[in-house]
Amino acid sequence: MRRTRNAVVTPEDSEVVPRGRTRWWLFAALATLPALVLLPLLLVFVGILLSDENGPGGGRKSDHSPCSEALAFGGATLPDGARPVGKCTLHGFQDTHYGTSFRMPRTGVQVWPAHTYPDAPAPETEFCAGDDVDLCLGLGHARGLPDGVRAHAVEVRVVYEDDARTALVRFAAFTT
To answer: Tell me: the pLDDT tens digits for 39-84?
Structure first.
């Protein structure tokens, strides 16, 4: 007769074959321990990502700031004839991000960046983020941003409006 692993002792057999012992409890303990440690960390991480307590961006501080402060952070001033649109914002956690929008006469759109950032390249019409953007300019310290400016990068996006006289300029200055 062939012996099997789970054989039991019968009166005919004189040998005792032990039943197999599984170590399921050891596997369960080893699988449960990392789950118990990682689950709270995962819940905290998801909570931070979904938190909108301090504004958009999941826990990032968002405040309104003076538009002159937002422009000065990027080394600029409000152009002549321009008027702010909406509120200027400051977002900050580890990095600082100022944002502002203003309307200005369309005739000054090319002059303002050249006057403000003399070493910068001319605004371009290709490779601008967004379908409605007509001109854009991305600056960094290696690409036309003057020394002494606190921002590490500046982005300017221009949208020509329908009335053929004004342009909407979106200005962002931030650290990286």
So the answer is: 888 888 877 776 644 444 444 456 788 889 999 999 999 998 899 9
Q: With contact defined as beta carbons under 8 Å apart, do 106 and 166 qualify?
A: yes
Look up tokens 């956690």; give the residue: 93
- Using DSSP's 3-state secondary structure scheme, residue 11 falls into coil
* Cβ(127)–Cβ(157) below 8 Å: no
Q: 3-state DSSP call for residue 88?
A: strand
Number of neighbours of residue 41 by Cβ within 10 angstroms: 9
Residues whose CB is less than 8 angstroms from the CB of residue 164 and which lie 6 or more positions away in sequence, other chains included = 106
Count of CB atoms situated within 10 Å of the CB of 170: 17
| CB atoms near residue 67 (< 10 Å) | 23
Three-state SS annotation for 49-78: HHCCCCCCCCCCEEEEECHHHHHHHCCCCC
- Go through the chain and tell me how many residues it has: 176
- Outline where the chain has alpha helix (H): 24-50, 67-73, 111-116
pTM: 0.65
